[in-house]
């Protein structure tokens, strides 16, 4: 008996219908009923796709108007009391309040340069990354008053909806342990695991109701089985699933994103009817699981990659599945490794991709088809799907041998790097002296992180250029005007190290990807990041090289307008890697190195053109951390190596900056220090400089610019506030190493508040100097 299914399907819609419906609803243009109708239509369409692909179930419960964890909070009736919801507020209104906060109308302004929304949404539930993906979930809040009580009928309604459409339904639920794990304790000394017994009662009720609705299989996701778990959490699994055992409903326990390792035996022994494993991220565990999982349980093999967009090697997959099948008494479920939420709905017929590239790629719809083909090959034998297997094989072969993928010069260069390619010439203290001589900056030098307001005019000019309505020369002229304006403002504010403002950049990764060989861009390859927000990651398909300089003209133009140092502005190799779909035919480390070499060439060109200070942004280094602690050192080693390769081609008198915008460094300080940037700017204002303490006690050796104000809000900070923060910083980091700058780039801000905030910031720096 072979079954086929997916753990979840993208909900945003092939044409981002959900995004647009949500935004219309938030603007008051459509009411709740119309929004619900839009959701219903998308669900129906996505279920039909699963059915048409011959899957044995449609997955229900993966849909959400904002986030599946937020749905779960309402299902369990544990909306935090702090929202003070009152009786008459509708479930949907409460949902959006939790998701977007009370100042939600300001949300559009509350986005920072990294594309994440924070700021005004301070009253909303916190948002954080879903494991190691770029999806963000809303963080549940727990304290000793938390009560679980089945509240929302939404899930059951959707189940009915699917049943009415004649589908065989498999609901999905986030598992009780993962749900608690992903939440946050809101009271000191409170242990959220203590909520488990109460929570299990609610789950039992959910299962009972699903059973009554005639549901046979329920998928329960426990992705935390792929992380390092404290013993208490691990020990909680067996009794929890024992408590959820029922005669009428079978549980398929789903794990994904990481190998099971020390949790493997536990996962195989839990009293559930089936286990799903990620056979892409943890292929080498498949054999052990195949042997350890008792034969009467179902094994779901996630063999189609749910995290990347490559068309799969079906021959290889089939081979693995056959081997597995032979040890499972002919019973097996074929699946994608994880929910397809993390890939675009489709990549076929994408207008921006040529036919060849399209034939190498697979979005969610195409992956459904891969699952169908694999199942059919197992059931009816490979000849039944000979044409499909042949097409997949040809695409694989074409991709493997394509000159678009392999560039011998790139490989040759990467293989023959000098041993010291990632080393600056002199050590930091020596460089610091040389650079002080050269730039003669005052104490507490001021700078910004790179971008200035991306005004509507700037975006209109870029759109007109794209549509061919604005000539290239006119576009350049318009951008030069923006740069000149930014320079003039910075000079009048008396900022020490200027930036050109990044007016010409659409996005900090796309801008570079578009100019490098090896990248492709889709027209419609959207992936949900959170809520209505989607990203369209570049597709890094081939060896990376830089046909010509990418930023030199703009930077040199900006420098020509001022005597002050103009900081060159680049995106670092790990951030480019992390925010793209990357190739699966070579290790990520090899791809990172190729990007690093291209950026290195740009750094050297900037230096040659007279640019003395160059910033290489790496906001995404932390995002790349593997889920398992044991894997982190290896990642950090190649990631920091790549950064250093990009930064080390210059002379000692050239000052390298880097920028990272997140607020957790303590566990990676040694590696951040090893990156050896002359100056690092970080986000600290919202943590009240607490974050710097770690840098202090670690004795971080190089210069640091701890952000003195939050750029996520239009609020203009007072001089005194920033002086207070700088004083706090000076207590833990030697004052001579401190810079003064905002938390992040200013592209989402308007000019008036930007100027006012920077004026106060410069004032604060001057007060620090006087206090000396
Ligand atoms: N230089 C970029 C900017 O200022 C950095 C953005 C980021 O850190 N995410 O926009
Ligand atoms: Zn930033």
Spell out the blueprint of helices and strands:
Elements: E1 2-5, H1 17-26, H2 32-52, E2 58-60, H3 68-75, H4 91-100, E3 127-129, E4 136-138, E5 141-142, H5 154-164, E6 169-174, H6 176-182, E7 184-185, H7 196-212, E8 217-221, H8 231-243, E9 250-254, H9 264-269, E10 274-278, H10 286-292, E11 298-304, H11 314-326, E12 332-336, H12 355-360, H13 364-380, H14 386-401, H15 408-415, H16 428-439, H17 456-466, H18 472-493, E13 498-499, H19 510-513, E14 517-520, E15 527-530, E16 533-535, E17 539-545, H20 552-560, E18 566-571, H21 573-578, E19 581-582, H22 588-608, E20 613-617, H23 632-647, E21 655-660, H24 669-674, E22 679-682, H25 690-698, E23 703-706, H26 719-732, H27 751-771
Parallel strand pairs: 1-12, 2-6, 5-7, 6-8, 8-9, 9-10, 10-11, 11-12, 13-18, 17-19, 18-20, 20-21, 21-22, 22-23
Antiparallel strand pairs: 3-4, 14-17, 15-16
Q: How many separate helices?
A: 27
Per DSSP E runs of 2 or more residues, the count of β-strands stands at 23
Strand order of the main beta sheet, please?
1-12-11-10-9-8-6-2
Question: What can be said about the biggest beta sheet?
Answer: 8 strands, parallel
Rg for CA atoms: 27 Å
Q: Uncertain regions: pLDDT < 50 for 5+ in a row?
A: 104-110, 116-122
- The rounded distance between the terminal residues' Cα atoms is 78 Å
Helix content: 40-55%
Indicate the CATH topology of the domain at 2-11 and 51-76 and 130-401: TIM Barrel
**Shape field:** globular
Bound molecules: glutamine, zinc ion
User: Which secondary-structure class do the elements indicate?
Assistant: alpha/beta
What is the C-level CATH assignment of the domain at 2-11 and 51-76 and 130-401?
Alpha Beta
Based on the structure, what is the oligomeric state of the protein chains? single chain
Percentage of residues in DSSP E strands: 5-15%
Average pLDDT rating:
95
CATH architecture of the domain at 2-11 and 51-76 and 130-401: Alpha-Beta Barrel
